[in-house]
From TrEMBL:
Residues 4-102 form the OmpR/PhoB-type domain. GO terms for biological process: phosphorelay signal transduction system; regulation of DNA-templated transcription. This is OmpR/PhoB-type domain-containing protein. The chain crosses the membrane at residues 120-141. Pfam families: His_Phos_1, Trans_reg_C. One of its GO terms (molecular function) is DNA binding. Keywords: DNA-binding, Membrane, Transmembrane, Transmembrane helix. Residues 4-102 bind DNA. It comes from Marinicella pacifica.
Amino acid sequence: MSSQSIYRIKHLTIDFEACVITSNDVPISIDHKAIEVMNMLVEASPETVHIDQFMDTIWHDKPSSPEVVTAAVARLRKVFKQVGIKDELIITVPKKGYRFEPLEENPPHEISQFVAKKPLWLYVLLCFLLVALTISVGFNLKPSAHNPPNRDIAVTEAMKIQPESASGTTKIFILRHTEKIDDSEDPGLSEAGRERAQYWKKVLQHTAIDHVYTTDFKRNRQTAAIISDDSSVKPELYYPMSFEVLKFLNNIQGKTVLIIGHSNTIPDMVNRLINDNKYPPMSHKNYNILYLVTINKNGDSSSTMLHIEPPFSVVPAS
């Protein structure tokens, strides 16, 4: 048994003691033998584990050929690929066995370069939001009979000033589903959730969205349906467990898309899209965050996270 019973690779969690692999808390079907192979590789890293060692430790109880090790490694690699981990984690050592190479953290200079590559319009957008919010608060303190306060202006106008995307630029807006009615297995939206979804619709009304993606949960489908109600865009299903970043980006290149996700999948998805462990986990109580990822035609990515509260009190379901 490995000295650490839980091992994490990006959004993938391997519980060696329970012989379970999950991706964003969603269990992945794989046999115990393959997990035991992974356990030995992690425990021995960076050293090579010989085929005979696998055979003597895992398949000692019945006659087997070395091909069972090769097949187990192939199953592990398939899982990594299915969940969007493109890195070569298990290295084949010819005529010997296999070696595990853990992922390296991004060095500090890469992160600073990433920040430096942010386009100017993102900073303009954030500054405008601050100014607009200040003006909005001023209106609320001194309301006029002829010009009643409208805090929606701060957000909708901010979204309107976004410049046209350069040719080939991809924009990805990512939201969590809005408030659900209860904690049952697959609940729909509460009244507060429907109200917030209508507000997100207003926030994004000046954004020409080409595709809307949602998971196959009622609360997500309802959120997506409300936001895209007045457009010809019909929501499409995606599955976080098998979300492949490169394939997804190739399919939406040069488009503007909206993704409706979950609190336990969105930050990791954004981090994978920008290839940077930038965003921390999201609280399950948080419904007011909008992520925006932009990727230019050269593949350079940038991102921002906006906290946007609606101009009304959202009362969660009791």
